[in-house]
């Protein structure tokens, strides 16, 4: 699988609510840098973050607006639609993924924290 295919497969698993499937595309020491909030290092920490919005019961959508790939780097502009608890959230996100040996080693998302907190209120 190419780096872009790996990222696409990861996103598809998230959208299906398949937490284990999503985690299978991450390296064991993957860094998830949720830029305006915090970092999670390793699949167990990332599992804790993803479990907030990735499950078969919750509707999650990562609408890819634009995506570019070069070598091991994949960047996308997305509209993320998530359910967090009883709140439905929509965020414009810029994502950066680095893939090595078929697994995501870095996942960095940039978004406006005020947009998130405003929708969570």
Keywords:
Nuclear Transport Factor 2, Chain: A; 121 residues; single chain; alpha+beta; 6 strands; 47% strand
Description:
The chain is α+β, with helices and mostly antiparallel strands. The chain has a single domain, classed as Nuclear Transport Factor 2, Chain: A (Roll). The chain is built from four helices and six strands. It has a six-stranded mixed beta sheet with strand order 2-1-6-5-4-3, with helices on both faces. A hairpin with a 2-residue loop joins strand 5 and strand 6. The protein is globular and about 40 Å long. The mean pLDDT is 94.
Helix tally?
Answer: 4
Largest β-sheet summary: 6 strands, mixed
Into how many domains do the coordinates divide? 1
Strand order of the largest sheet: 2-1-6-5-4-3
Q: Give the N-terminus to C-terminus distance in angstroms.
A: 41 Å
Helix content: 25-40%
How many strands?
Answer: 6
- Note the beta-strand portion: over 45%
Low-confidence stretches: none
CATH topology value: Nuclear Transport Factor 2, Chain: A
Q: Average pLDDT, to the nearest integer?
A: 94
Task: Return Rg in Å.
Answer: 13 Å
The shape, in one word, is globular
Order of secondary-structure elements: HHEEHEEEEH
Q: Specify the CATH class.
A: Alpha Beta
Structural class: alpha+beta
Please identify, by name, the CATH architecture: Roll
Q: Topology, pairings included?
A:
Blueprint: H1 3-16, H2 19-23, E1 26-34, E2 38-41, H3 43-50, E3 61-70, E4 73-84, E5 87-100, E6 103-110, H4 113-120
Provide a quick synopsis of the model.
The chain is built from four helices and six strands.
